[in-house]
Design goal:
The protein has 560 residues and is mainly beta. The chain has 7 helices and 32 strands. The radius of gyration is 23 Å and the shape is globular. It binds CU-O-CU linkage.
């Protein structure tokens, strides 16, 4: 009864608030699909028989309701990457964080409002490595009567960059977990599910955009790859960035985009080249000296009045290790001035978080194939995160169940050392598993310095925070120094993101306001590092009012 009243009150309030807001309904049937991106047929898990899955379009202010029916052989959850989930934490999706997984044969309905964010986000599975094939675009248009803060494009195309394994990805992940070694690298990258002309057996497996000369198009670039940041370029054309992670940016003109897993980049493209065909291409920005899939995926930009039969023009992509190019792009973006949000100036919680790889003991009577006979681990402040297995953290928090997590995640690393010096780092290379989270009072302002370490090796890590955007105040290389680097902070129009690619061998400073009660995962969006424990979570307590209190869970929340 109380629950019904609560829903009634909320529904009424919503309607009174925004007459134009509507409810958008979708059904996701998740099951096996046979596909053939390269030379042989493979069976993968996909939504509604599509790869990528369905594109969801809403207007800002709408309510999205998605019934997920798990017809796959695996446990499943879906995460709505970048959605604020204000008071709807039960719909966020990460397995064992906000819900137990949907077991094969079961359903769960995700229901949430989408407010105060516009642009491109996406959705993906958030359990094991299933997101390799369970993903799609989530596009938030301005609400009725509002328009983009830039020329209305003639047409728009989501371009979802993916990563493909010929092997079953769950097997790849399980094998790595068993041996403690690095997982096998992928076999291809894809654009909208298709690898493109540069791969074997790519016949007709190339995504194509047809444009009319003189018109402006919007490309919504999403990096859904599992383990690789990607450079993106179109031969013969500049791009104007207008949005990232569903926030608006000052227009930024560039010939190359770099996008980390989890991030999105909206660009305008003017079809002003000589009529013809051009390759759209993406390949890794790989900042660590490790084995990676160094192949290139392509799509084609084709002018509709072109009669040329010549091969499409290929862009020259940056070298895989071109950190200066990546950093120039990542650090030059700023929020659109006319839209800019106020940066909170008073900080309640200062956190300094080391981010990087490490090793953990192999385990008694086990043999491991990781470095020094140990197993790879990854950590924040030397705590390597382990998900609970018997109850979700949000359920434990909501019902006061002890023993699922501990709220002792440290604000600083256990040891101060020369973080980006490889020699100093070898002294602190081992870590242990735990489920340590940081508890925050409602509405506190949190500043985090992410500091990459050279333990095993430096690397650019895309750190994603669920449930919030953060202001990116500054980024740099080497060790963060509060005395000198604080003066670099952009407190006027910093870029807003949900995923920050922390510079390789460097640092980034972000700030956010903890105004949403619940449990919010924060992790590296390279799935290989997520599996190794590069995450933690924030537990945000309720505030003093109904509008700052997490409602009870939906009745169909999956049970463990
Ligand atoms: Cu894209 Cu934890 O998510």
């Amino acid at each position: 009864m109380a629950r019904a009243m609560w829903i009634l009150v909320c529904t009424f309030a919503m309607h009174a608030f925004a007459a134009s807001a509507k409810v958008v309904n979708h059904t996701f049937r998740v099951g096996n699909l046979t596909v053939q991106p390269l030379c042989e047929e493979r069976v993968v898990v996909a939504v509604n028989g599509q790869l990528p899955g369905p594109t969801i379009r809403v207007n800002e202010g709408d309510t999205l309701v998605v019934l997920v029916i798990n017809e796959s052989p695996y446990n499943l959850t879906i995460h709505w990457h970048g959605i604020f989930q204000k008071l709807s934490g039960w719909a966020d999706g990460p397995s064992y964080v906000t819900q137990c997984p949907i077991l094969p044969g079961n359903n769960y309905t995700y229901r949430f409002n989408i407010t105060k964010q516009e642009g491109t986000l996406w959705w993906h599975a958030h359990v094991s490595w299933l997101r390799a094939t369970v993903y799609g675009a989530l596009i938030i248009h301005p609400r009725a009567g509002r328009s983009y803060p830039f020329v209305k494009p003639h047409k728009e195309f989501p371009l979802i960059l993916g990563e493909w394994w010929n092997a079953n990805v769950v097997d790849v992940e399980n094998e790595a977990n068993l041996t403690g070694a690095a997982p096998n690298i992928s076999d291809a990258y894809t654009i909208n599910g298709r690898p493109g002309d540069l791969y074997p057996c790519a016949n007709n497996n190339t995504y194509k955009i047809t444009v009319t000369q003189g018109k402006t198009y919007m490309l919504r670039i999403i990096n859904a790859a599992l383990n690789n940041e990607l450079f993106f370029k179109i031969a013969g054309h500049n791009l104007t960035v207008v949005g990232i992670d569903a926030t608006y940016t000052e227009p930024y003109i560039t010939d190359v985009v770099v996008v980390a897993p989890g991030q999105t980049t909206d660009v305008l493209l003017v079809a002003n080249g000589p009529t013809g065909s051009y390759y759209i291409a993406a390949r890794p920005y790989a900042s660590a000296p490790i084995l990676f899939d160094n192949t290139t995926t392509t799509a084609i930009l084709h002018y509709n009045n072109s009669t040329s039969v010549a091969a499409p023009l290929m862009p020259v992509l940056p070298a895989f290790n071109d950190t200066p190019t990546a950093h120039r792009f990542y650090s030059n973006l700023t929020a659109l001035r006319s839209w800019t949000h106020k940066v909170p100036l008073d900080v309640d919680e200062h956190m300094f978080i080391t981010v990087g790889l490490g090793l953990e003991p192999c385990g008694v009577n086990a043999t491991c194939a990781g470095p020094s006979g140990m197993r790879f681990a990854a950590s924040m402040n030397n705590a390597s995160f382990r998900l609970p297995t018997t109850l979700s953290m949000l359920q434990a928090h909501f019902s006061g169940v002890q023993g699922i997590f501990t709220d002792d995640f440290p604000d600083t690393p256990p040891l101060v050392f020369d973080y980006t010096n490889a020699n100093a780092s070898q002294l602190v290379s081992t870590t242990l598993k735990s489920t340590r989270v940081k508890r925050l009072a409602y509405n506190s302002t949190v500043e985090m310095v992410f500091q990459n370490t050279a333990i095993l090796s430096v690397e650019n890590h895309p750190i994603h925070l669920h449930g919030f955007n953060f202001f990116v105040l500054a980024q740099g290389f080497g060790n963060y120094d509060n005395a000198t680097h604080r003066s670099m902070f952009n407190l006027v129009n910093p870029q807003l993101r949900n995923t920050i690619a922390v510079p390789v061998g460097g640092w980034a400073v972000v700030r956010f306001i903890a105004n949403n009660p619940g449990v919010w995962l924060m992790h590296c969006h390279l799935d290989v590092h997520l599996s190794w424990g590069l995450s933690t979570a924030f537990v945000i307590d309720n505030g003093p009012t109904v509008s700052s209190t997490l409602p009870p869970p939906p009745l169909d929340l999956p049970r463990c």
